[in-house]
From TrEMBL:
Pfam families: GST_C (PF00043), GST_N (PF02798). Residues 1-87 form the GST N-terminal domain. SUPFAM superfamilies: GST C-terminal domain-like, Thioredoxin-like. CDD domains: GST_C_YfcG_like (cd10291), GST_N_Ure2p_like (cd03048). Signal peptide: none annotated. This is Thiol:disulfide oxidoreductase. Residues 90-215 form the GST C-terminal domain. It comes from Methylosinus sporium.
Length: 234
């Protein structure tokens, strides 16, 4: 059994997609980030960066004590190695998947995240910041579109690279993007959306928390006003 500390954000969805695809037994432990539950000592013990998702695997392959992990990319690699699925074992295939996984965790996710913040959540609309991140998100969509030309999936076969990227494309409208401008991304997106495991993963998210358009002032402070003092409870 795997405990998944989770909230239905793009990074959270990555892990439920994998778990549903692989058919692993797991239990969702909700972490309501708008209420500050990510700062609870028990959660910080397994996710010192006070971010979800995080997992606790109570049945690691070495038969030893439970293994906890934070960071969605690391979790995907761990689960792929645990199950022997969605990450090739050959040198070149593994390298392709990992480079596109890191492209997402180092590029698409952070840039789209800043895009979301300045377009949708920032109390002050700063045109330079909005243009900067909308344009960079657009560039990254272009990179992905080029990569998907003539391919069904990002690394040819379905992999953790697809699971990582898809949830960050789902809110494309909120990112100021038009999928019609990226026909290869659109084809791949529709294929991903139709996968039964992806449908189940998103249904799990809806059962935990319905999407919302805004936050209270207190929730904004919790989500966007974090400093080192947050970890000390100060």
């Amino acid at each position: 059994m795997i405990d998944l500390h989770y909230w239905p954000t793009p990074n959270g969805h990555k892990i439920t997609i994998f778990l549903e695809e692989a058919g692993l037994a797991y239990k969702i432990v909700p972490v309501d980030i708008s209420k500050g539950e990510q700062f609870a000592p028990a959660f910080l013990a397994i996710s010192p960066n006070n971010r979800m998702p995080a997992i606790v695997d109570h049945a690691p392959v070495d038969g030893g004590a439970a293994v906890s992990l934070f960071e969605s990319g690391a979790i995907l690699v761990y689960l792929a190695e645990k199950t022997g699925r969605f990450l090739p074992s050959d040198l070149r295939g593994r390298a392709r998947v990992l480079e596109w996984l890191f492209w997402q965790v180092g590029g698409l996710g952070p840039m789209a995240g800043q895009n979301h913040h300045f377009r949708n959540y920032a109390p002050e609309k700063i045109p330079y910041a909005i243009d900067r991140y909308v344009n960079e998100t657009n560039r990254l969509y272009g990179v992905l579109d080029k990569r998907l030309a003539g391919r069904d999936y990002i690394a040819d076969d379905y992999s953790i690279a697809d699971m990582a990227a898809y949830p960050w494309i789902v809110p494309y409208e909120r990112q100021g993007q038009n999928l019609d401008d990226f026909p290869n991304v659109k084809r791949w997106f529709e294929t991903m959306r139709a996968r039964p495991a992806v449908e189940r993963a998103y249904a799990k998210g809806e059962a935990v928390s319905r999407p919302r358009d805004g936050f209270t002032e207190e929730e904004r402070k919790i989500l966007f006003g974090q400093t080192a003092a947050s970890l000390r409870g100060g």
